[in-house]
Design brief:
The complex is a heterodimer of chains A (115) and B (496). Chain A contains three helices and no strands. With 115 residues, chain A is mainly α. Chain A has one domain: Helix Hairpins, CATH 1.10.287. Chain A is elongated and about 65 Å long. Chain B has one domain. Chain B is globular and about 65 Å long. The chains are: A mainly alpha (115), B mainly alpha (496). At the A-B interface, helix 2 and helix 3 of A face helix 6, helix 7 and helix 10 of B.
Chain lengths: 115, 496
């Protein structure tokens, strides 16, 4: 299962970079979205995909019952999702403004920084 | 007093909250913002004093012992970075009173500014890789909005590039975090140092390269620096000054942390790579600046070339070289912020920063010319200003390692920097005003702009007159950094 997911994640990274390298603003946003999902999946996979018990320590024991998946990466992903969500929401608004200013979704038309 | 560690984060967040809650009243927001910035400066000084007397300070939030809880650590490097950030934050906050327009203030300039400072201080103080990511994101979120706030076309287009590149950098950082956690099961920096220091296998190397990519983008290292000159000249001057002073230094700080604490098992791969990247960064930055004719764009390219000096010290990887890097960072934060503020004063006086449309400033504002020359010559490394001692320390360190190429490049780039500064001087201050210059009434530069500029120029001169104070401190900081056992012991075996 981990091997399969590794290929899926690799495919997502490749897709996202391909999209970001296109000239279109819409594809850039899509690329950013897929990139953040790919990173989250990668962290998820590092928790080892184990089916089993909840990682809660039963009363009187010192460790959760085996087998269990490491819950920490899932907490990390939650944080990462929230952050990526905020940035992406902002980027959508920003790209919309950029598009309105440019009148086209061609990124090559962005000014080269001259005022 | 361990609580000294909490205040540099607590003060900006409370200030930002108070600004948000105080409503749209400009005067109230300004008062709160100034108070917060002043308190942050004092908190930074206090933290520096505490670290100086008590050594490395560690706080385990919620009393969960490391490596399980969230750890805050302040050693010399972190404390001095917080103190300098507090100083710059305070100075730019004063400048912003005269520079930022009412519309931007109404739409949240002050709270965003303090969130930015909180992110910067948090990134310096955290002892955990994932928290470093979160703090950098806090800083970036505020910087995205500050960059785009106002919605001028150039700002929006600069912000698109800035956001995209920084988002990718954050993704790479997170990828590295995933790989490191998968390999070691911990993200506490001190714990990672214990586990990975002497590793020379493929997994830490891959993680190290991903982090080099991520922090390299944020610091503006070759070859991924082009987002910086594409965006830093677009927002109000107060915003670009604080960006120029602090944001890239967070990237450099993170590089110093991970490449002195965690990834030291493969010095034959990582550190020559850092040296070469630094050399290329210095060259491309300074050559890029030579082609520019907008003051803030010239200065933006010089940020890049100066970043090369800081990481060069890290690449040399000796106590003297890291000490030179620390000195360089402190010197550069103050000088570069000041140069941006002076660009702001020029913009205020003449309504433009285009060198081709400027001229005759020396006739109208002679003292502004003097104030410009202090940081400009310091940046170029003219004795006896702060930049001279920074470059001297770095080049001495390089010579003792027989790094001839890097030393030659560092010297040549210093000369070219001086060339760029004289270009600004000659074009903006010295030559006669061109006939097609935009019309401008002759007006005095506001005192609120002059106070921070004069203060920072004074600090630059003082560092130049008493360099040994800062040199001794930087070397002490470097000695601490190069003895990671101190950091590890402080975090993992806290004395109650």
């Amino acid at each position: 299962m981990e091997t399969l997911l590794a290929f899926v994640i690799g495919g997502l990274y490749a897709t996202s970079f391909y999209l970001m390298l296109r000239r279109s603003i819409v594809k850039l946003v899509l690329g950013l979205m897929i990139f953040s999902q790919a990173v989250n999946l990668l962290i998820f996979t590092t928790a080892r995909l184990t089916r089993g018990n909840t990682p809660i320590i039963p009363e009187g024991a010192a460790a959760p019952l085996e087998p269990f998946a490491d819950p920490l990466p899932q907490a990390l992903i939650l944080t990462a999702i929230v952050i990526a969500f905020g940035v992406l929401a902002f980027s959508l608004a920003l790209m919309r403004r950029a598009h309105a200013g440019l009148g086209t979704d061609d990124l090559d038309k962005l000014q080269e920084g001259e005022q | 007093m361990k609580s000294a560690l909490i205040f540099p984060i607590l003060i900006p967040v409370l200030t930002a909250a108070a600004c948000l809650l105080s409503g749209p009243n400009r005067t109230v927001q300004r008062a709160i913002s100034m108070t917060g910035a002043a308190l942050l400066f004092l908190a930074g000084i206090w933290l520096l004093r505490e670290v100086h007397t008590a050594g490395i300070i560690v706080v385990q939030l919620g009393n969960w012992p490391a490596p399980f809880g969230i750890t805050l650590v302040a050693d010399y490097l972190a404390a001095v970075m917080v103190a300098v950030s507090g100083f710059v934050g305070f100075a730019v906050a004063i400048f912003a009173l005269a520079d930022v327009d009412a519309g931007r203030e109404r739409f949240g300039f002050h709270p965003l500014y303090h969130v930015l400072l909180m992110g910067v201080c948090g990134a310096f103080l955290t002892g955990d890789l994932f928290n470093l990511f979160v703090w950098i994101e806090v800083m970036l979120m505020a910087s995205f909005v500050l960059l785009a706030l106002g919605g001028e076309r150039a700002q929006i287009e600069g912000a698109v590039k800035y956001l995209t590149l920084n988002f990718i950098a954050s993704g790479l950082f997170l990828t590295a975090i995933g790989i490191i956690y998968g390999a070691t099961g911990t993200l506490n920096i001190a714990d990672l140092a214990v586990r990975l220091r002497d590793e020379s296998t493929a997994v830490p190397l891959a993680a190290a390269m991903l982090l080099l990519g991520a922090f390299g983008i944020k610091a503006g290292l070759f070859p991924l620096f082009f987002w910086l000159p594409a965006s830093y000249h677009t927002p109000p001057v107060a915003v670009s000054a604080v960006f120029a002073g602090l944001l890239t230094k967070v990237g450099v700080y993170a590089l110093i942390r991970v490449f002195t604490l965690i990834f030291t098992g493969m010095p034959e791969i990582t550190h020559p790579l850092l040296i070469w990247l630094s050399v290329l960064t210095m060259i491309t930055g300074v050559l890029g600046a030579a082609a520019q004719y907008e003051i803030r764009r010239v200065l933006s390219f010089h940020i890049i070339s100066q970043i090369g000096y800081m990481t060069l010290g890290l690449g040399f990887f000796t106590v003297a070289a890291i000490g030179a890097s620390v000195f360089y960072i402190i010197h550069h934060i103050i000088v570069k912020t000041n140069l941006f503020l002076i660009a702001g004063a020029i913009r205020y006086a003449r309504g433009t920063n285009e060198l081709k449309q400027l001229g005759g400033l020396y006739r109208d504002y002679p003292w502004l010319g003097v104030l410009f020359l202090i940081p400009a010559l310091s940046l170029g490394g003219v004795p006896p200003l702060s930049g001279f001692f920074a470059k001297l320390a770095l080049i001495t360190a390089g010579l003792s390692l027989a790094q001839w190429v890097a030393v030659t490049v560092a010297l040549a780039v210093g000369l070219l920097t001086l060339f760029s500064m004289t270009k600004i001087w000659a074009e903006a201050f010295w030559k006669a005003e061109p006939a097609d210059a935009p019309p401008h009434p002759k007006k005095a530069v506001p005192v609120l702009m002059l106070i921070p500029i004069c203060t920072m120029a004074t600090v630059t001169v003082l560092i130049g007159i008493f360099p040994s104070v800062l040199l001794d401190f930087s070397n002490a900081a470097a000695a601490q950094i190069m003895n990671p056992q101190l950091y590890i012991d402080a975090v993992l075996r806290p004395t109650p």
